Automatic annotation (TrEMBL):
InterPro entries: BrxC. This is Bacillithiol system protein YtxJ. It comes from the Bacteria.
């Protein structure tokens, strides 16, 4: 791993999946996530894997989540790999696309959302 990869995060890091997340990789995954919001609040983190700011926000968010006593149900969407799903979220939930972005969904509706430095675990607790 190069010096810059250590600082900014490299490809090695991208291939690892965190146990914090359920991954949205299809429209069916998105449908299941939305259905789950009818029994509990869920969060969807929309992340651009090529953006330094998004990587930093993601790391900080994951640290915050680890410190919560009760772990919320969280979903992760890789915007570069699944842009069509991100577009579907924006259209179906009537929420403007941003990156990075965290959406809190309850009963199939966005009840809270934030982007960039405003993303916080406090949104879903």
């Amino acid at each position: 791993m190069s010096f810059f990869d250590k600082i900014f995060g490299g490809k090695e890091e991208e291939s690892e999946k965190s146990p914090v997340w359920k991954y949205i990789e299809s429209e069916e995954d998105l449908k299941k996530a939305i259905e789950s919001s009818f029994t509990q609040k869920i969060g969807i983190f929309k992340h651009s894997t090529s953006c330094f700011i998004s990587k930093t926000v993601l790391r900080n968010f994951e640290k915050e989540i680890q410190n919560l006593a009760q772990k919320p149900e969280l979903y992760f969407l890789d915007l570069l790999a699944y842009r069509a799903i991100s577009n579907k979220i924006a259209e179906d939930l009537q929420i403007r696309h941003e990156s990075p972005q965290f959406l809190v969904i309850e009963n199939g509706k966005v009840i809270n959302n934030a982007s960039h430095q405003h993303i916080s675990a406090e949104q879903i607790v």
